[in-house]
Amino acid sequence: MEHGRRFGAFEDEELAAQVMTYPLAVSLFGERYEMGGIAYVATYPEHRRGGLIRQLMTKSISAMRENGQIISYLHPFDVTFYRKFGYELAFKETRMELRLKQFMQKSTGVGKIKRISHSNADFELAKQIYASYAERHNGMLIRDDAWWARLARRGYVNEIALYLDENGEAQGYLSFAFKGVQMIVHELVGLTSVAETELWAFISSHDSMFEKVTIKNAGEVDELALSLANPTALRVTQELTFMVRIVDVKRFLERYPFPELEEPLYFKIKDETAPFNEGVYKVAKGIEKVSEAPRQEVVEANIGAFSQMLLGFARPELLRAQGKIKISKETAARLEAIIPHEIPRFYDNF
């Protein structure tokens, strides 16, 4: 909150509503993108339905653009409410539960596990592992020291199992806690398959102490199932969590990893909350705003569906079938080949 930007709406010099933006950064396509994290959106009940939040959200998005934050995340209390401001779902949280008696992973005997906490000097190694992992996966928060301190205050990094390979190099970690007869894994991050195996073996070694383990932030379920000895013992629940919107369309397109295009692409964007984004964008060797586009080539989308699509959360063909975007089958096929297929990940909360 010390670093956030807060806008308030006042009536008779008394605060009636507010919106805060955290100055954060995320990893997208292997690069750092400045991100505005929307939080503390609130209105006193007696001031609701007066349009104050709309004014504050509009102001916040404009300020993000001026501040160089070209993308924004938020955790919605109501998805429909934030869709009005151009946000759309783009992340999911996966929680898994395993009965340890049903699941046993043997150690490879390579490397070793070291128990540490956030107060240990080796905690810096866990930070470095996370940073390398975040670079490889779209959507992940780039955590600075202040954010790690926030996680420590909230008890997420009190107990850590750090994996060191045969050369003594840190290649993975898991942060965990115990509650009753279960082990709770807050985060499992491995840079190699051996690191992941050894961390799972560490979890398995607690089978005489705890009946089950609950896990989140451990990658995609499909990837996980391939590495587990008995995936049928896995119980999975998923929840759609964070929403996203592109704040500055032109700057986002300028940084997007488009391949060399034989024919231009045209995007016609609708954005009521940020009118500066509206218009037709031609993507060729560069990005330019144009007055019109060939009808058969243009991709028409509101800012929410456009953001979902370019981050890879919702595929072009699915959005076309659902009527979320207007696009020809031929252009949809072109976009399917261009847009990364990795589903974005986000392991943090605010």
Automatic annotation (TrEMBL):
<dbReference type="InterPro" id="IPR000182">
    <property type="entry name" value="GNAT_dom"/>
</dbReference>
<feature type="domain" description="N-acetyltransferase">
    <location>
        <begin position="1"/>
        <end position="105"/>
    </location>
</feature>
<dbReference type="InterPro" id="IPR036527">
    <property type="entry name" value="SCP2_sterol-bd_dom_sf"/>
</dbReference>
<dbReference type="Pfam" id="PF13530">
    <property type="entry name" value="SCP2_2"/>
</dbReference>
<dbReference type="InterPro" id="IPR051554">
    <property type="entry name" value="Acetyltransferase_Eis"/>
</dbReference>
<dbReference type="InterPro" id="IPR016181">
    <property type="entry name" value="Acyl_CoA_acyltransferase"/>
</dbReference>
<protein>
    <submittedName>
        <fullName>GNAT family N-acetyl transferase</fullName>
    </submittedName>
</protein>
<dbReference type="GO" id="GO:0016740">
    <property type="term" value="F:transferase activity"/>
</dbReference>
<dbReference type="Pfam" id="PF17668">
    <property type="entry name" value="Acetyltransf_17"/>
</dbReference>
<dbReference type="Pfam" id="PF13527">
    <property type="entry name" value="Acetyltransf_9"/>
</dbReference>
<dbReference type="InterPro" id="IPR041380">
    <property type="entry name" value="Acetyltransf_17"/>
</dbReference>
<dbReference type="InterPro" id="IPR025559">
    <property type="entry name" value="Eis_dom"/>
</dbReference>
<keyword id="KW-0808">Transferase</keyword>
